[in-house]
């Protein structure tokens, strides 16, 4: 199995970051053929989504998360910025890992699908993402 960690700068506000470029580079660097890609976010306040980007779906996802998880004082987990408790609930809704088949060195995603880091926590501007490839 080959594995690496990439750092993604999400800044101080909510973000959906397409990881496609980093993943393509990783698969190329390990000479991936057939196998399984696993993407893992080792953070208690971030997750991964397989969604369409660039047509508003990423913005819609953040809006839906704001509706589901408002940044207010209802949360028992209260350190950090106002409403930070919602960020700790996020991985229960947007999972911290995703696995995708790799065929002929490429992710077997649908036409408009991308693997994206979802980060609602402005308190942590840099995230680590572990990419692992298991040959099949």
From TrEMBL:
Coiled-coil residues: none
SUPFAM superfamilies referenced in this protein's UniProt entry, alphabetically: YjbQ-like
Top-level taxon in the UniProt lineage: Bacteria
Pfam families xref list: YjbQ
Similarity annotation: Belongs to the UPF0047 family.
Family annotation (NCBIfam families): TIGR00149_YjbQ (TIGR00149)
Organism: Pseudonocardia charpentierae
InterPro entries, per database record: UPF0047_YjbQ-like, YjbQ-like_sf
PANTHER family found in the cross-reference section: UNCHARACTERIZED PROTEIN YJBQ-RELATED, UPF0047 PROTEIN C4A8.02C
Protein name: Secondary thiamine-phosphate synthase enzyme YjbQ
